[in-house]
Amino acid sequence: MRARHTGASLASPAGSSAGPAAHARIAPGLIAGILALLAGAATPPPSAAQEPEGQIPGVELTLLYENLYIPPLAILPFRTTGDSPETGALVHGIVARDLDYSDRFRIIDSLPALWNDQQGVQYAFWDQYGVDWLVIGTVERVAGSRFLAVELHDIVTASARARGRFPLPAPDDPGFRMAVHRVSDEIVMWATGEQGIAATQIAFRMPALGDPASKEIYIVDSDGANRRRLTWDADLAVSPAWSPDGSRLAYTSYKSGVPKIYEIELATGTERMIGPGGSGQQHSPAYHPHGGEISFTLTDRGSKGVVSYNIRDGCCLRMLAGGRAPNIQPAYSRDGRTLAFVSLKLGSATPQVYTMPSEGGTQTLLSPYRYGQGGYFTDPDWSPVSNQVAFAGGIVNRRTVGRYHIFIADLDTSDNRLIQLTREGNNEDPSWAPDGRHLVFKGERRNGLGIFIVDAATGRQRVLVANVDAEDTDWSPWLGNSGGAGQSPGNLPRGGR
Question: How many domains does the chain have?
């Protein structure tokens, strides 16, 4: 019998907080406008041709884990009982893609010609073909109700790892795909002991379809399907931020003429203004992990900086990171005790990422600033399972002007080890998945703009949404309990101002 390969893993540290990191970001164009407003600052460097490039000096160009064993997994065609073969094929396709996109398995594309499931699982047969895991599924329809029954078999130990039977809506139900995604995540949990990310969504802003002059908030499932529009402000809607439980989405809207922070209750489509009153401008909200407080950038009658506000009670505005230099783009750590943010204290053309206690205190430089070399670093986002911060930026010189990449700083190392995760094109607006392993970001390649996802363990990249000028990407927490915004598109708000 073969021994189980383990390899490196990305298991969450023991005792890690279950709450997702809350964060927010502003696209470079918006950063330029805000910084000009706050400090009369210069705009970020212009874009350049998309050429592959090496790493920033002193920063590792590598992966979080190398030599990672990816176990082979086979998925038998799903059978149907009382339902159409088309439904079985549809569910099989979604599960297969979800498990592939988890980056935890090497999916066997072509099954052996001699496989036969009529005599039970033939462990020796599958072991001969080097398969580690085998998934078997059946779509059942009984008395008008559908169920998806799945089994996961461990070929290496010749045993059934787990079985389950899950409710399944009709294929035309708005919650159908999310229900299948939840089952895919259960399979990942059975095999690895860690939650999958199929039952998640990504929020972003892009030019409104049919009205490119306005920018609106959209969401899309983690596999790139089911894209839909959330806001109908007929203006500029930016910086979406998921609440820790995935039931709400905060964002900044210019629909009143002054940027204010609004929140959408996703189950009902109800929208409300959640920031403090007054004439001040509010940008880039970030939820505290307990969900009852937000941080954001406030500019009001000479007062400027990162503030916190109790949205549960509608009170208690506090300045967290003020001063003469603008401070923007707050992002909470997973336990809410530390805040990452962007500051211009080293110069208006060289924004840098800092950390500080969330109640205020000493500010520590995190991004790789080097005197005389320049640098433009923004968009911090804290991992929901570890003490790692992702951000975007680059050193500005004749060779790399206008090129931005995704970086990860590991705050659990003595020197805050820095990893450069991308090297091709422009890459901005990183946001962690709830597994602390994948990141979504805005990318630009030779063939155009889009939203990309990268696995920090293997370096594998895929396109989530192609050929869109999308920005401000934000990955939801796991939506296996709530279903996110996919329950009923009819509940989403629409209409003009």
Answer: 2
